[in-house]
Automatic annotation (TrEMBL):
Belongs to the YccS/YhfK family. It is found in: Cell membrane. Keywords: Cell membrane, Membrane, Transmembrane, Transmembrane helix. It comes from Amycolatopsis iheyensis. This is FUSC family protein. The chain crosses the membrane at residues 33-58, 79-102, 108-138, 150-172, 336-360, 381-403, 409-426, 433-451, 457-479.
Amino acid sequence: MSTPRPDIAAPHWLTQLLRSKPVPVPWNMVARAVIALAVPLAVAYAAGDIAVGALISTGALPAVLSESAGPYRYRARRLGGATLAATAGYVVGLLTGGTPALSVPAVILVAAVSALISAAGSNASVAGLQMFVFAVLGTGQHATGVRVEVLLGFFCIGAIWSLLVALASWTFRATSPERSAVAHVYVELAAMLSATDEAVSRVARHRLTTAMNTAYDQLLTARSWLSGRDAAYRQLLNLLSATTPAVEASVAMVNAGRRTPPEVIDHFVALSATVLASQPLPEPPPMPDENADPVLTALYAGLVRIGKGDDRKRREPTPWFKRLRTWAGSLASGPLTWIAALRLTLCVAIAEVVGLLVPFERSYWITLTVGIVLKPDFGSVFGRAVLRGIGTVVGVGVGAVVLGVGGHGWVLVALITIFAGGVAVGKVRNYGILSAFVTPLIILQMDLANTGSWNVVVARLVDTVLGCAIVLVFGYLLWPGSRRPQVGGRLADGLDAVAKYVSCALVEASSGDARLARSRARRGAYRALADLRTAFQQVVVEPSANGRQAVAWWPVIAAQERVADAVTEVGVTIGRGVAPPDPADIELLTAALDELASAIREQREPRSMPLPDGAQLSGVVDQLGSAFDAVRGPDLVERSPLGLVRRFLPYHRRT
């Protein structure tokens, strides 16, 4: 077999870095950002003191930067935690600012703490970032000459205002985000089944996986099974669980290359509309009697299952002390968090020293740039540093025009409105876009009194360039292991998840527990594939061994996805006139997947493994054979560490 090629060619690192995510504009987030940031400025200017509005607007910034789509309970915890952390950091900055002997060690300590608490989860990570950002910004507020208690009071007013804006619609749109997430699953199902091109259908399948993961995450986060609206959450979760057989059958239809009847696609569209409107579900179309195809039979049976629903067992939320214990265990058991914290702390310390040496006022922007770029859980350090630099150059250019010509009054309010909306768009589209809008926004908030001064513009540009240079040199080029290839280990973990899925999907699920185990294994496998693609997108932007290895692994990633789809195609037919495969054949498949995972972890060529030769598993065997060929393929040298290249060189000469 030949090495499978990717569905789409892996792009050049710079093209990938500058690419904007093709997602819709989040108009609701744009509106909330504009109201939270621009209204205080407008009111204060109308009252005669726009500087007060800038201070209040600064307090609204943590919630705007931390804003995320999702259930209101999740957003309340996320935004509330980020705002409290930002307030605590701001207090530290205010109390130590103006005295380098206090502010430098305080900022370094806050940086270390923010990196360590990131291991507790995404909400803790966002809170840690806001705590660090506003600790740094707080150290520069001594130059305003305003008393600390006054600055803190205005900051708290802005923080409360932004939380009210973000959560004001909770009372009458309580379950709307969850309904939208579930309805989006049916939209993506219809899109996948409507695709006429293989590449388009694969992209649609990836979007379906993302939609399923998002819906499950939102509903499991919002669950509480006690009273009131929790019954609505449970109903939606049962509906989503009942949709799993239809999802599996749809993936099997696409993988088999079969056309889906139009009435099935129309039914998914109707399901989406009724879920959004909270109306009774439509009746599924009847299955044609003359069609005995087992995959199509499974699809129609899945539509019937959606109407019946599931009754999931209640699962109690994890107590806070158990989550705290898990976080503490993660710190004690692995070095990765400590290494990330050490790198961030070192670079922040260098930035603080450089900030004392440069002849610019308020050079805290150097440290701010280092912390935002080097936050340990936001993907490629190289990519974020480059995007931050590009975005800041653009942002400072805009700020130069505003500050240089002495823009004031309603012009500033209008510009803050534009920048606030741009921040909301940049958060979901591209980090460079975010930097291009957030830079002039913070410049205007922090330096409103300096309008008309070109020195502020030059200082911010130099500070950002220095911050990015510190990150690239000390946090990337000179930091041990920063350019070491990492995608291979994630790929091996994905193969483990697919092997578990094989052992659950290719047996007849005669009980509810067995069906639940198979459903969870399928979600685990496809979630692992989605995470693997995310890891690929993060590191492919690097022009280093890490990025080159990611590109070299791409055919293996594509082959792994095809193996999972082929397993789904076989699994949905079991029990519908088709007997399950022989257990010995299933063991051969899982053993082959285990060998692939071991070969990737050990950086060696995989051994030849016996595979089933029956017709039922021929599709799985073909895709698995392609995966073996991909691992043995001509890109093996790029995937291997430099010390192993010679070991594999004879193989490449043979091929």
